[in-house]
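Aim 2, interim progress: modelling of the fe (ii) ion-bound target.
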Amino acid sequence: MKFYMPVKVFDEKDCIGNHSKDIALLGNTALIVTGKHSAFSNGSYDDTVAALKKENIKFFTFSEVEENPSTDTIFKAGKKYSSEKIDFVIGIGGGSPMDAAKAIALVLKHPEAGLDYLYDTSCDGSALPVVCIPTTCGTGSEVTGVSVLTRHDRHTKISMVHKVFPEYALIDSRYLSSAPYSLIINSSVDALSHLLESVLNSKADDYVRAVAYSGLKMWSKTKDVLSGEVKAGPEEFSCLMRSSVLAGMSIAQSGTSLPHALSYPLTYDMGIPHGKAVGYFLPGFLQAAPEKDRDGLLHLAGFIDLHDFSQYFRNVFGDMEIPEDELKRAFDAVKNNPAKMRSASFPVNEEILKSMSGAGTF
Ligand SMILES: [Fe+2]
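Predicted structure of the complex, ligand included:
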């Protein structure tokens, strides 16, 4: 067994300011990578700039990362800043800016890299140091080496083959307090899916289970926030963020499984948010899992049984209508990927996958 999680995680109020000296150890010039809006309104960008100024670190800001960032965006940033002698990259936001920050850190380290480089295991996958500052509660990217990028040439999202683990994850759940409610729902369902998929995974071991079980218990404390029964305060925001970090640690070991693989075409073709797209396939995935495993996990997450779980999701997301041809496309993409078919901890044949992908549980 192996548990590899090399990221130094700091989780506290005023985290960025408290760790400016740690950030300064990474070099003299930083590139901040963000999306277009949220980092500038939730205080995370201002806190980062204040910390960099305090340590006399020169910085540039690339704020053009779109939702589900494309490889085109990565190379645009790489080209723009290749001559600026960047020492390290800071990704602020949800999964999109953090995943982009990792890929940009790799491209800045290897200016000769083209698209194939990101997907060639024989290439040097080292990158500039990365700092991740999550402002949503789902991706877990701050503690994984994964960078999922949109490939317009392939009409879907594909993870870069190189693993770029951040040097630091700076966690301050206050940044969640200004996030739109829909974003909190979508990202937290993503975290729940990470926890479940990492355990119901052929690569799961005792270490993964220990972390994921903890994450599920933490997630259960936020369940009523997503359904609107409880208004989130500092304690709930902290639980939302921590369950997401724990979920990230567990997928960093075992990876995700079938709901994630099935979800990518829905996000690419229909623009369905990642967490919602993954959530669509979760009940079908759990239905296919052995009952004893499934029920134990559902209890940890605060559900009575699968029916309770499906009902909850219907309340949170409402009815989701996915066209038959889209479900077929998702099914075909996974059916032809033997590694993904084997990723679940239980046997999955085409029949089971078909019921999972067209489950119609919602
Ligand atoms: Fe995810």
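The chain has a mean pLDDT of 94. The pocket of fe (ii) ion is lined by residues 190, 194, 260, 274, 278 (CB under 6 Å).
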